[in-house]
DNA sequence: TTCCCGATTTACT
DNA sequence: GTAAATCGGGAAA
């Protein structure tokens, strides 16, 4: 069947107002889907990190630095920002905020719910707990690559659907941003608590 | 053009 | 716990 439940797709307006840290929190419990080559995959978002733009030393757009890579960050909220990290991993971000407000949310982990066989295949059949936990493996499981950079978040290929907020949320410092000095300590990482 | 290094993962010692 | 994989971006020259 058409597994996409259109009435639950999050409208682009959701991403375009409010502050990025609050939005990163509120993405927990919502679902992320891709349909690539007819294969539906998706799961519930359980870990996010906010990247707060010009004032955030950990952010690619710190000091409004604008380059071909991070161009997507400067667009109006509601598109994906995908980039290559360590030459190996594709990292998927949700761009939020107004045009020229370069903020976004790194999706770090989902709890797989749809297309698990496809995700296992893409990942080379890892042990289940590692199927889509970690931003690199999440993108690999969902089939997200650089070609999805700037794609709309309500497209037939990649979209989010509403879902219930988690029972509890844990906040803490972001991962892998030690270079950001004091900004590395900001509690911009959010995880659903089991 | 050169050089350094990264919003990571995985496989080892 | 440590290190290799792997390559484009960004700063410096």
Task: Write up this protein.
There is one protein chain. With 194 residues, the chain is of the alpha+beta class. The chain is built from 4 helices and 8 strands; from the N terminus they run ααβββββααβββ. Strands 1, 2, 3, 4, 5, 6, 7 and 8 form an 8-stranded antiparallel beta sheet that branches. Strand 1 (31-36) and strand 2 form a beta hairpin. The protein is globular. It binds a DNA duplex (13 and 13 nucleotides) through residues 49, 51, 58-60, 65, 67-70, 83-89, 91, 93, 106, 108, 126, 130, 134-137, 174-177, 179-180.
The residue-averaged pLDDT reads 94
Straight-line N-to-C gap: 31 Å
Largest sheet data: 8 strands, antiparallel
- Name the shape in a single word: globular
What is the helix content?
A: 10-25%
Into which percentage range does the β-strand content fall? 25-35%
Give the number of DSSP strands: 8
